[in-house]
Amino acid sequence: MLDLVTLGRRLKDARLNCGVTQEAAADAIGAPRTAIVHIEAGNRSLSTMELAELAKLYGRPIASFLADDENQEKDFLVALNRLSAEWKNSKILEREIRRWVDICREGAHLAAMLQRESRFGPPAYDLPAPGSFAAAVEQGEKIAEEERHRQGLGNAPIPDMAELLSSQGIWAAGAELSDEMSGLFLHQHEIGLVVLVNFGHSRGRKRFSYAHEFAHSLFDRKRAFTVTTKKNSTELVEKRANAFAASFLVPKAGVEMFLTALNKGGSSRRSYHIYDVATDEGIEAERRTLASSQEISFRDVALLAAHFGVSYQVAVYRLGDLSYINREALRALLEKQDLAVAYLKLIGKWKNVGGMPTSQDRELVSQILPLAIEAYRREEISKGKLLDLSKQLGVKGAELAALA
């Protein structure tokens, strides 16, 4: 039986995530604000009708508040279907997600069979629900810096986000999701942590989605799943994940180093103050750079995007967030996206951030195939099972058997 304190905490977290005030929540159930205070503190029960109204206001299914254990959703697709009617009506989407989850389940079984170390995943950060947009951004950026330090990434670009997730014990793959979905994160006891991103998106956007869903694995592991769509983009946990992704992929110190190498982004006037030991006084001097030499152009932003492997838009907004450009310059740079793309294609760097996929991603295949081959070599699975796995993974069975 769910206790009132746990229910109150879940309701409070959902309210804060949506940016709803206690007054607005109270109005939704026709009660004074103090009623919400007591409900969220676990000091007051609420009727089924009141819970239904609050769930509607917060955009969450009632079941998500009443589940005995948020981590152990028996079948996450049941919960996914409750979340939105559009998923329920998409059999193609359901089959695609179930296919990848089944593959991850096979991978987990193979790993257990081979007595490999359990995939516990990265550390979970038990932070309070962000109460504002600023708090969400600050949490995301802070943990991004901590994660870069923990993983020894320094300020360098991350070559492959899917490989990074795999190294952190997360099953990762590009899947054929619906257009409005950029990715999703799943947490099941039997399988572990799973991240799927939209295979149909450009390379730079997929990298950002991997980082975004990685944030959910760090912050939101108490949930059985999170889905990232246009519809829930206003939620504070989504904003926190976006802030994490931007800071994780494009670190502040890395941007500073990059712009310094270009001799951009600094002040047009430099003052020097040096102590003179001979006179025991200070010497002052000033140097001015050429007019507009420090101005960041669309070409500079394009190079920054290619360097860190993110989209041009991400690079522009990151520079704005770090106060290298003002709001007017940000808008002007965004309007030059087509020129930036043309520039990157001209210098041969467009492949770093753009382009659409021509064949299915191989991230998950590269994680599971070695397990399958090793299990077959040890005679833990039969040749028939090996061929079944090859079919699931889209690999030629004869080639796999020959390698095994």
Task: Characterise this structure.
- With 404 residues, this protein is an alpha+beta fold.
- The protein folds into four domains: 4-66, lambda repressor-like DNA-binding domains (434 Repressor (Amino-terminal Domain)), CATH 1.10.260; 76-249, Orthogonal Bundle (Arc Repressor Mutant, subunit A), CATH 1.10.10; 263-352, no CATH class; 363-403, no CATH class.
- It is built from 20 helices and six strands.
- The protein has helices at 4-18, 22-29, 33-41, 48-58, 63-66, 76-83, 85-88, 91-113, 133-150, 161-167, 203-219, 236-249, 252-262, 298-308, 312-321, 327-334, 337-346, 363-377, 383-393, 397-403, and strands at 170-175, 181-188, 192-198, 225-229, 269-276, 281-288.
- A four-stranded mixed beta sheet has the order 1-3-2-4, sandwiched between helices.
- A hairpin with a 4-residue loop joins strand 5 and strand 6.
- Helix 2 crosses helix 3 (33-41).
- The two termini are 50 Å apart.
- The model has no long low-confidence stretch (mean pLDDT 84).
